[in-house]
Amino acid sequence: MYQTLLRTSLLFSFLIIVSACNVRWVSEYDAQTDQGVTQLHRKMETFLTALEQQQVPDCLSTEHAQFYQQSLVDVRALKIRAKAIPNNDITLQQLALLEENLSLMFTLHKTQDSSNTCMAGGMITFNRSNFESIFTAILKFELAKKRQVK
Amino acid sequence: MSLNLEQLSQAMVNAAKGQVADKWPQIKDYLKQEAKKLAENLVLIEKLKLTQQISDEQAKLMHQMQSNATKAVLLSVQGMTTLMAEQALNAALDAVKETVNTTLNFTLL
After folding, report:
1. B65: closest CA among A52, A99, A113?
2. pTM of this structure
3. Contact criterion met (CB below 8 Å) for A16 and A129
4. Distance between CA atoms of B6 and A123, rounded to whole angstroms?
5. DSSP A61
6. Residue A71 in contact with residue A40, Cβ under 8 Å?
7. What is the predicted ipTM?
8. Helix A121-144 and helix A89-113: axis angle, to 10°?
9. Do B37 and A22 touch (CB under 8 A)?
10. Looking at beta carbons, which residues of chain A come within 8 Å of B60?
11. From the list B41, B53, B108, which residue is nearest A129 (CB)?
12. Is the dihedral of CA A89, A95, A99, A101 positive or negative?
């Protein structure tokens, strides 16, 4: 008897606590983040495809500084937007990792210049796969925020 | 009419289970697929290093990039799992909403 009363009280306490509205632990889907990240992914793919076909000196990092700078500006703009959205910490952290990897890739590219050679095919394959994982991670989570119920 | 605790609990558990059963296999598949890709990249770095196509410094940079990509994937899994829990809880509440509100004769849920 006492146990049933206790269980009923607990259930109702729980219902009252969460009754104000639907629970929202994660931000809403943001179309601009989705589009921004998709555009950046396309830009990266275009860049890597071009790099695969280039010879010295066109393939050197000095020839592509603008791509890196512009991409970093794009990610930072996305981060500012993500920061303004409530409960969006995970996306913000992912964008910070994307930003860091863009800077690391630029450094990687610069180190290749010292030997006056183009990045090896394997390095380009690595970069493609690495960025694909990050872009997919951000997009997969952003799309999941649409909360489609079957 | 009074509320039946067992029926309410069961309805909530079933609704939550439905959400988990629907979403968890998708999250698991994604993680499996990405883990394979991340492992392949680690092997690739070692191969490039052994064949002297990259320097020590470059290998270090690539390892750092790989670590960041892994973190991004795990963050996605964490986020999707949180979303799944959120949806399971909301589905559980929705499942008993009508019964509770009708019985109490006011909108609690």
Report:
1. A99
2. 0.87
3. no
4. 60
5. G
6. yes
7. 0.87
8. 170
9. no
10. none
11. B41
12. positive
How confident is the prediction along chain A (150 residues), in pLDDT tens digits per residue?
677 777 767 666 666 665 556 788 999 999 999 999 999 999 999 999 999 999 999 999 999 999 999 999 999 999 999 999 999 999 999 999 999 999 999 999 999 999 999 999 999 999 999 999 999 999 999 999 997 544
Please give the sequence-ordered ranges of beta strands (E in DSSP) within B27-68, or none if there are none.
none
Assess contact for B93 and A22: CB atoms under 8 A. yes
Instruction: Give the C-alpha distances (Å, rounded to integers) separating B53 from A108, A115, B44.
Output: 13, 11, 11
Q: Do B93 and A19 touch (CB under 8 A)?
A: yes
Tell me which residue in A22, A111, A132 faces B58 most closely, judged by beta carbons. A111
Q: A113 to chain B: which residues are within 8 Å by CB?
A: none
Distance CA B80, CA B69 (A): 17
Nearest CA in chain B to A146: B83
